[in-house]
Structure formats: structure tokens, C-alpha cells
Specification:
Two copies of one chain form a homodimer.
Chain A: E1 7-11, H1 14-20, E2 29-33, E3 38-42, H2 47-53, E4 58-61, H3 67-74, H4 77-91, E5 96-100, H5 105-114, E6 116-120, H6 123-129, H7 133-157, H8 163-176, E7 179-180, E8 185-188, E9 205-210, E10 213-214, E11 223-228, H9 233-252, H10 259-272, E12 291-293, E13 300-304, E14 316-319, E15 322-325, E16 329-332, E17 335-340, E18 343-346, E19 354-355
Parallel strand pairs in A: 1-5, 3-4, 5-6, 11-19
Antiparallel strand pairs in A: 1-2, 2-3, 7-10, 8-9, 9-11, 12-13, 14-17, 15-16, 17-18
Helix pairs in contact in A: 3-4, 4-5, 7-8, 9-10
Chain lengths: 356, 356
Amino acid sequence: MEFEFDFFVQHNDINLYYATKFRAIDLAFYIVGNDGTDLLLVPDMEKERAIRESRVREIASFGDLGYHDLRREFRNSRKAQAEMLIRLLKTHKAKVVGIPTNFPAYLALPLSQAFDVKVVKSPFLKMRMVKSAEEIEYIRDTSRAIISAFEFALKLLKRERSCDRIRDRIENYLYLRGYLATDTIVSSGKTSAIPHASGGIIEDHVVIDIFPKSRKHYYYSDFTRTVLIEKNDKIEDMLRAVIEAQEKAISIIREGITARDVHYTVCDVLESYGYKTLRQKAKEGFIHSTGHGVGLEIHEDPRIFENEEVLKAGMVFTVEPGLYYKDVGGVRVEDVVVVRKNGCEVLTEYPKMVRL
Amino acid sequence: MEFEFDFFVQHNDINLYYATKFRAIDLAFYIVGNDGTDLLLVPDMEKERAIRESRVREIASFGDLGYHDLRREFRNSRKAQAEMLIRLLKTHKAKVVGIPTNFPAYLALPLSQAFDVKVVKSPFLKMRMVKSAEEIEYIRDTSRAIISAFEFALKLLKRERSCDRIRDRIENYLYLRGYLATDTIVSSGKTSAIPHASGGIIEDHVVIDIFPKSRKHYYYSDFTRTVLIEKNDKIEDMLRAVIEAQEKAISIIREGITARDVHYTVCDVLESYGYKTLRQKAKEGFIHSTGHGVGLEIHEDPRIFENEEVLKAGMVFTVEPGLYYKDVGGVRVEDVVVVRKNGCEVLTEYPKMVRL
């Protein structure tokens, strides 16, 4: 491996699924090493299923590595797990051991006493940034389901005044079609000035932000539109500026530019209309980043903010400028794009300006 | 505090929600200290919502603590977060800092260089073991929904032969009633010999294991029945032994006995019929623990295994013996109980022997 470590230990999170295709229930470890180690380590009762489902060839159970004796010896399952990993890595003569940033502390600290431990972004997290053609089709599939659910919500808006009930109907609609949406945002009036708030009664405009994952292939997509209902000049001006900022940002996205280029394009447009941004340390206005990667997690790399990450073809992320003012309310417009060599493709194609 | 540390830092997981009633989206920290510190620390854009929704009185944003300057200084958001926490704790003259076992490594290692860090089971995890009357009603509510979904599944079994389709129908049924079930198990024939496997065609018997959470109050429950469909003496004998083991175990549960007492009662009954158990290092037979706590997570403390955890009134957990043989298949019977002073109450009351 071309890494700053000779072994890497991935614990059970979505990266373990990405790397092994095994959906572990509780604890599991995937260990790769520069001596050719490529091992999936699972609880005894999961070994059969791991052999069936994972794409890793070498599979061992905790019992195979003497875990049960260690647990009896230490009378502590956490210490026994740490010791099991340490002994395994020592057998392989590991010196520098990489662990992911979110690796659990009860294992990280003992490992750091036994090895030169490097806490790094999981290499799988980096691999996940650039999507395969198959992954892009999965995200496209979820995007289509969202657009269909949004059109369903527009029909509901003609007779339903409760944001919570509209949210429930959207989530039910998606669930019955094979998608799981949680924390869907349907917010109106001044409540919409809080980006993640939801609920209340439909007033002058409504922000609808839908981000389900497929229950079949597990890939997310993410989409927001602001629907204008009653005349509100301030909201309409804000929305026009946000749409212009988003379209300008999308127009510059292609392989080779940086995340910051995209974010600053959004800031430039919004600031040109006199709105404040986080770049100016504003507390109101454009108070979040421009976007985030989307895939097996709803928020993943690349982050589209002030960072200088260079965009590569196949990266998939949101472009979602918004403006938020306590005394007025909030607006946001969000699409998911795939970076291509000479531009980008929008996976959530839908008109930006929506009036009821 | 009566702990082995003078400060405790809880990061965003379900314990943070339990302790603060704030549903954080990404990063958040809840910090308690023996100098009276009781602080919820959230990203800037979440501060308003945290003030509205959490029950913590002191709320600060990352920005309030100088995070943005630190991020610019280190050009690394992870280092900036660690430094923000270290400076905050130093301001409070913290010496011994407790962190939960699953605290992320990228913060745990820098903290361990600045303080005497103790990696402990989150004190909130311990508090969560004993449920309030309100929490028990939530779990009872989810239990009722499960029983209703199971009765719906029994009707489906009369005409539907695909385990996957039955599982989808169960999950849809629950979703439309406000409960989210994932990884529901519907397995038949020899597939059922793998405890967490699902799918295939309905054969001689079917194991149905349903464990949804409420989408309103977020509490789980967990229930399994083995339904006999065609004559299979081996399966029927296994099921009789499992039911006897489960009933015997439930009959001894009361405040003051240990988890091990419950687990060994199950093992004793199963072994008396000649079945093997994990206590005998068996690879087939009763190859998992007797149960696990149920609440805001599907698997939480107390674990009902060989551990000597003393049961307290208000603890809620599963009692779920099973037997698994590759050449025959598997059976399992599972209920959720609440420990009372002089016995226990079953929240998932339903006949144990079910024939189609």
C-alpha cells in the first residue's frame, strides 16, 4: 500500500460495508496489511453469513482468534477485543497501524500503546468520493424517486396546511416505493429561517428538503426546492439570488477546479446582491457550506466549502445555497451533481423556481 | 459526580439525545463537570434549534468557542475540534476526563495527551438500563404494533411463499402506522439455521423476528415467533425445548438475580434435552446469548449472557433462546420483559407455540 501505515483496521461502519459488501450487525473488523493481509473478522455467529455475503476471501471469527479465552481471562469484553486485535497485528509484525478517525476510543487507546497508531480518514472514505458508473445509477434511481415524491407533495400542498402531515405523506410515499426518508424537512414562514427545522403551518412559502436512501441498494440522494405560495417580495428576491448563485456554481463545476471555487462562486453572487455569507462571518444570510458528497451516507466527502479539494470526474455532491433571516424566513435550492471531465451532470433535474 | 473522572465528554450518539433531548444532525458534544458544567456544544447553525429543543440550559456554538479561528490556524477541522475541546476543558481546570468507549479516535488520542483520559461506558448508557414509567409505555406501544404486524404476517403466510415479500409487507405495515422496521427476519427451512439470515421460500417452518422503533418516540421493541407449517419432528422438538427454556427463564426474573442466572437457566433446560450450548463451546445448538436490553437502541445494556450484572426493577430486555442446526434449520422464541421487584412483566404477550 502507498499509505503512511503498514496495516489498516476498519471497524464496522458504512466503510466496512463498502469495502467488504458484508452488512455487519454489531462488531466487525476489516484488516488490510502490506504483507497481503485481507481479513474480515466477525463474531462467531456471523461467520457463515460473512462467508456467503462478503467479497473478502479470508474470514475469521472472534472465536478463531481466541477471543473467548481472552474474555474469560480479562473478564472484560472490551479489553479482550483490544488484546485480540493487538495479538493478531503482532503476529503479522505490524508496526505502523492506521485507524479511521471515528475508530472507537476503547480500542484506539490500547492500540496506540502497542503500535505507532495513525488516526486517518479511512482510505475507503476517500475511495467512496469517486463513484463508479453503477453507484451513479443508484444515486440517479434515488433522485428520480425524490422528484416523484416532490411532485406528489406539490399536489398535497393544494389542500393540506400541516407541514408535519405533508412530511409524513412524503415519507410514506417513498417508503412504499422502496426508499427510506428520515428527517425530511417541510418548513414554512419564519420557522424556515432555521435550516434543519421542520413543522408548523403552511404560510407564504415552504422549503421541502427530501433525502432518502434506497432500501435495496442503500444509496442516498438529496433535493430541495422552495415553493412560493403567497406574495412575499423579500422571500422572492432571496430565492432569485439563491437560484442565480446555484446555477452559476453548477456552470463552473468540472474536473480540476476546487471545492472552494464552487463555494466562493455562490458567495460572490449572494454578496453581489447585498446578502451576507459565512465568509464575512455573518450570523444571518448564507450560513452554511455549499454542499456535501452523497452516496452510502447522506453527508460524505467531498465537502464543498472553503476547502481546496480538487474535484475529480465521478464525484457526486450537492449544490445547495440558501439564505436565512429570522425576521423573514429561509429559502434553499439544492441539486445533486456528478462531476464530469468538462462539466457536470445534474441528477435531480427539476425547475428551480416553483410556484403553487 | 461520584465518578472516576471530573469531566465527561459525550459526543453525538443516542446517549447525547437521551441526556439532552436534542437530536443533533452531525457533530455535537455534551459536557458535564464536577464544577457544575452542564454544556451542550453544537455547530453554529444548530444553536437556535438546540436552544428550542434541548433540555440543557447552557448552549454554546463551535463559533462561540473560537472554532473557526482554530480551523483557519490548523487548516484541519479535526485538529481544530480537538483543540477547541482541550481549551474548553483546560479553562475549567479539568484533570481527569471521561470519554465513552465509542468516542472517536481523532479526538480521543489528542485528549489523552492533554488529560488523564478514562475510557468508560457512558454513564448515560448505564442510566438508560433502568427505564422510567414513560419509557416503558413507549416500549409497550412499539410491542403492541409488533404483535399486530405479526398477526398480519400470519394471514399473509396462508397465500404468500416468498420470505422477502412477507418481510416487505410487514415493514410497510409498520411504517404506515409510525414504526420503522429494518432487517426484519423472515427465514424458513435450513436458511433459518443462520440466526440473522433472511429470505428464501416458505418451507416447513418460518422464523419471524420483528424489531422496529417508533418514528415518534424512537423506542424499540423486539419479538420473535417460530411458526410451524408442515410436520417436522426435529423442528417441533427443538421448539418445545426452546419454549420451556424461555418460560423457565422468564419465571425466575425479578430484581436481585443476575443476567447469568437467566442465561444459565436457559442453558440448563436446553442441555437437559441433549442440545448443546455456547457454555459447552458448541458450534451448533444454542449459539448466542439469551438477550439484550431494548430501548433507544435495539441492542443495549443489560446484556443477558454469562455476565454477573444484577437485575434492577425497570430494566427492559429480551429473552430469546434459540436452537440452530445446519442440517435441520433454526427456531427461536423471543419476548421483551420489564424487571419488577418480585417478578417481571412481559410486554410482548402472545402464545408461544404458533401453528399455521
